[in-house]
Write a structure and sequence with these properties.
alpha+beta, 3-stranded antiparallel β-sheet, two-stranded antiparallel sheet, 4 helices, about 25% helix, about 20% strand, elongated, RT_RNaseH_2
Amino acid sequence: MVNFYHRFIPHATWLLLQLHCALQKSHSQKVLSWTADMDMAFAFCKEALAEATMLSQPKHGAHISLTTDASDQAIRDVLEQWIYTSPHHGHRGPLQHPYDGPFQVVAPSDKTFRIMAGDREEIISVDRLKPVHVDLTSPVPVA
């Protein structure tokens, strides 16, 4: 939990210094020597987490939900507030404008396009599509 909420805990690096030093690779050993300083740092971190539970001010009149979780060791409750998200963030438009070239697109799909070239249909694969210049002054060749 501290890894996630450390940005909301003032002076978190100072509080976690003793625990961090004990877990460094240079001190890696099979048995961890727990000291009184580590015990005090752990207690300070628990207290700081308990005080950092309210991360923002609630809005009056907004819908709320109560999420609970219980196990043999602990019980957890979280009061969450539903917020409105703008519809502009949920839907993004296409990066390119729709095709408006000289050919009529009959059926677009993910990897192919069926177009009308002259009086017949052609299937163009998008994987093999290369940019080309179309001369509209001459008639479309149908071969």
